[in-house]
Amino acid sequence: MNREWAIAQLDARGAPWDLIVIGGGATGLGVALDAASRGYRTLLLEAHDFAKATSSRSTKLIHGGVRYLKQGNLSLVREALRERGLLLRNAPDLVHPLNFVIPVSSWFEKCFYGVGLTCYDALSGSLSLGATCWLNREQTLREVPNLNATGLAGGIRYVDGQFDDAGLAIRLARAIFLHSGVALNYFPVRSLLKQNGRTVGVIAEDAETGQSYELSARAVINATGVFSDAIRRMDVPGAAASLSFSQGAHVVLDRSFLPGGTALMIPKTKDGRVLFAIPWQGHTLVGTTDTPVHEALLEPRPLAEEIRFLLEHAGELLQRKPVTADVRSCFAGVRPLLKAAPGVATAKLSREHGLTVSDSGLVSISGGKWTSYRFMAEETVDCAARQGALEARSCRTRDLPLRAAEWIPTESALDGPLHPRLPYRVFDVLRSIEVEMARTLEDVLSRRTRALFLDVGASLEMAEPVAEILRSRLVKTEAWKQDQVATFRALARQYLP
């Protein structure tokens, strides 16, 4: 992955692209990889960094969705469980099984959740990660050492998938290049090209230089997630909104709050939400909320009441109760939900996806979730190929390995940690610049590493030395470096409660 090389492909190409994909989150990256792996000439354009918005702010789970089983949406659960199994097979170093325990306070709860989760296992078929089992009180406390034992009758243990969302996004971007596609970050689309009422390309801009590019394509795909309606209105000014938004907030605590390797799942809190407490990268992640919001922000902030909700419910679950001072970082993501009738709560809206084609031929894919990104991409590319009158080619991503880039630095002595509380080294920073297209301090500390999401204080202390490495490698000025540090410090404050 090299941005300069990628931009050179724009200048070198005479013929139109087969497909231009707008959006570099989970959906857009998945669509572009599917298209490129079929042999279509594919270009992806992302206005900011890959996975900058919703796709780096998930609960870090690849799962079928126990809550959707309760809603009776078996097709969505079955589809997601199948995709979970494929991801575990195709990216085993990024996606792994994780044991979950549901604590119960009665024999009825044990039977109710046990039967439901047994059905959940059955729906995964041959891609099951392990059978559900009943635990007595003592076994449950051994599985989750810091669990509050008051009123505990036992638990149900089941297995689901965990991953690093931003890490998988970068892996998808790399795979696009491996299949002769091109993906560019910091390359916003400013308008759509039209010819005889048809969408035939885009006008995009390199955000780093301000240079504008007119790029033609056989078909254009809008895969911008929560910002999908903005692209639709480039096509049809005044187009009605197609999405509703729900914010999910998370808090990150020290590992000592969940010292074992088992996650906790509460299927129904007092207000009907699902709550998770999971081990993640040496820390404890607690989430999520489901708060209706009126607009999609690039940097959403957890509300004070969301943080309070998470800490209070975690305190009811755990023997050692977390307080605000224990929060190492907090973050929020906005979910793009297919719009329903007025008055329907976002918690009840479907996590399914929607695929539409406008009168001009613009293909828009919206909704969905990380777990089903590959299946969404397959449907989208099939549709776009028909729109662009492209030769029909079968999807290849079902069994496509997503491997890490092999990179050996020329420098020595790169093993020293950048901060004693986090596992990142100079090697990780150099790798993010050289082969993962990191362009800013935020790219490195938020998404190539997860320093900002894990420990705000540590990330702030790392900012100056990491910015110096960036300045040197990208051949920037001292003023650029200082601006990067100041910008990151202002951003990092938003991740504190």
Q: How is this structure best summarized?
A:
By secondary structure, the protein is an alpha+beta fold. The chain has 15 helices and 18 strands. Helix content is 35%, strand content 23%.
3D structure, described in words:
With 497 residues, the chain is α+β, with helices and mostly antiparallel strands. 35% of the residues lie in helices and 23% in strands. It is built from 15 helices and 18 strands. Strands 3, 4, 5, 6, 11, 12, 13, 14, 15 and 16 form a ten-stranded mixed beta sheet that branches. Helix 2 runs parallel beside helix 7, helix 2 (26-37) crosses helix 10 and helix 11 (426-435) crosses helix 14 (456-474). The protein is globular, with a radius of gyration of 23 Å. The two termini are 36 Å apart.
The average pLDDT score comes to 91
Low-pLDDT residue intervals, each spanning 5 or more residues: 341-350
Silhouette: globular
Percent in strands: 15-25%
Radius of gyration based on Cα positions: 23 Å
Largest sheet: 10 strands, mixed
Amino- and carboxy-terminal Cα gap: 36 Å
Number of helices: 15
Helix % is: 25-40%
The secondary structure category is: alpha+beta
> What kind of oligomer do you see?
single chain
Strand count:
18
